[in-house]
């Protein structure tokens, strides 16, 4: 009852304040400004041209001029104006979009191409999907006609990736009968950071008037860094989580200088640098349009983008020796960077046969990512010393109890990913002015990922490849072999890895899908319409390759250590098929007013872990593992009930849109990683709890006087866990077989296992209760033909968590976390739960237009917030990816 009361109260407040989900900052209306309501914009959310105000769903849209006015060039800027949409990331090109709180957490980067589930928010560039597990393509928004944000399940028309919604980037197309061009550039600074500069240019050239035209755009954007890599030392401490293997933790003695390489003196001096995280986008797009016949046209486009980043986009709370850090700082010991390139070829053929409209569209995407990240602080992890120290209770040195000796702690990981995505879709639709309107289509896609990732934190010397194992042992050499994947598996890179590689994966995964869909609208009366649609889908998923590790005594004193498993032999193939449907009733009681009710279903396919595994030791001897983790996990499903209102007010000077929804998210796909609870030192995914999400959105766009436009948008979202499942002991012969796993044998003692999936009432991560923004723009005429404008806005996001209650808190010295030197909490794992505080951001612009020139002075994040959008413990240190600091500058553009 309390939840419904909160929702009702929030609805009244939002309506009164004029909050909402941004109807479309409306200067791009198709009608003239004098005739148009402030929310008019033509969208294709239902695969046909419709006014935004006539689409019975929660949709947010931004046109070309608005994108430029608000300095929106990437998803980071877009989400400031899209309530109920959140974005978690580790920097550009390393993020995932969430809608309406439908998130099961985020980690990203390490292994994400292999172990992350497929996203549940679809990201499109025209008709090509750009989504990717935890690393959506970071499309730069240059010469974009509009962006559409469709909330709620869109599975009927957009498929399995659109479980929670869709973000569509729709490019400007060539114009057959008009030459036009535009140039825009900006220059400015970053508070506490380096300079920024950007440039983009567009030309539209008719080659044969009314028959053939070409449109091209190029862009370059340099974003200066703002995080400093500070000097830090690294000292092995008795509080290191794996120190007991070296037998010096009990009495607090430290390793002596003689027991360490370099006398135990390690630092990051060569990498100390201010503002060391710059970002560079460069790219372009060329499109050719050909009017083949009066009712037939062909569009072919080629897009290319390169995204280069350096450094880290997260700030640390302390350095690697537990000394507090202030300001925007980190202490990396290994170079960190990302190179992310994509090339996308797309084609669309439009035509008519009689009264029927036909569309065939296809695309081929090739994306390559090379990314490297620092992993030095893994040396403090429970198993970090196994790859860097010999003697004591470690595997390496032949006899346990020998004096320990440790080598350099510096480590890093490197990921090389190739992604290809081919799509084909055919649609046929009836005339849009008939009483009965229908659309039907067929779809095929092939999505493939090749992922070769190595963790290089093994510093025990390599034995080399020139001697045999017998020769190495005879010489008594302290060394380890080069690890290698299973040669019988399908590999992207064959043969042994480099001398420092301790763990790695060489994986291929993906799916082929075909689908058929249809949707029908029928006007019962002139004001009442019913809509029904369904989609049949069929997925064939696969995963092959090998996972390899030198965490094995057999890797000592050998030239090569072949430990990799063979995922090919596990026959990791699965098939998912079924129907997902949608039904809507739309009522238009008067011109300019629409009321609708919708039932819709969403889904996303299942995927694989890196093979089957076993976890959680039985409290009863002989302590066999209780949990046999399957190699595959199932799809999860979403059911959405939604009602909405769209209406014009005050003689079309204002539009009001409101919607309310209830969703049930079943069998949620969730990543699981909790070594402290006995669940192993590698992550796996499984199907977890059911969540129920209730919420409202409202929007107002108004033009109260000539020259003044106000937009306000907001959402209230309440997500709660509806059940509390457990892991069932499924290994025959263990004492708990067939029952919930409640105890684990770990470290020589029996420990409880607390609600691994969280408790009823828990909330989803990246699900702020409240989000809102309000913006105003005033245009007025000045002397000398100058047209002035001033605008500004504020957006607010309430607090939220980074992970579900599955994970232990990172803010307490418990559940494996320990107190280190200086009283800091040392995380026990790389995935912990943190609460990220609420924050507000303010932007402002002022400028003028004269003839075809526009000059704008701008400031984004005016009050220089350092709010965290993703707090995590990826380096066994609490770190936070923050919003970009205050940026300011001047932007000049002209139209030719």
From TrEMBL:
Keywords for the protein's UniProt record, in alphabetical order: Cell outer membrane, Ion transport, Iron, Iron transport, Membrane, Receptor, Signal, TonB box, Transmembrane, Transmembrane beta strand, Transport
Instruction: Offer a single GO CC term for the protein.
Output: cell outer membrane
Signal sequence region? 1-26
Q: Where is the TonB-dependent receptor-like beta-barrel domain?
A: 493-862
In its UniProt record, which GO terms are filed under biological process? iron ion transport
Q: How does it sit in the membrane?
A: Multi-pass membrane protein
TonB-dependent receptor plug domain residues are 52-166
* Localization, UniProt: Cell outer membrane
Q: Which Pfam families does the UniProt entry name for this protein?
A: Plug, TonB_dep_Rec_b-barrel
- Protein family membership: Belongs to the TonB-dependent receptor family.
- Record-linked PANTHER family: FERRICHROME IRON RECEPTOR-RELATED (PTHR32552), TONB-DEPENDENT OUTER MEMBRANE RECEPTOR (PTHR32552:SF81)
**What protein am I looking at?**
Outer membrane receptor protein involved in Fe transport
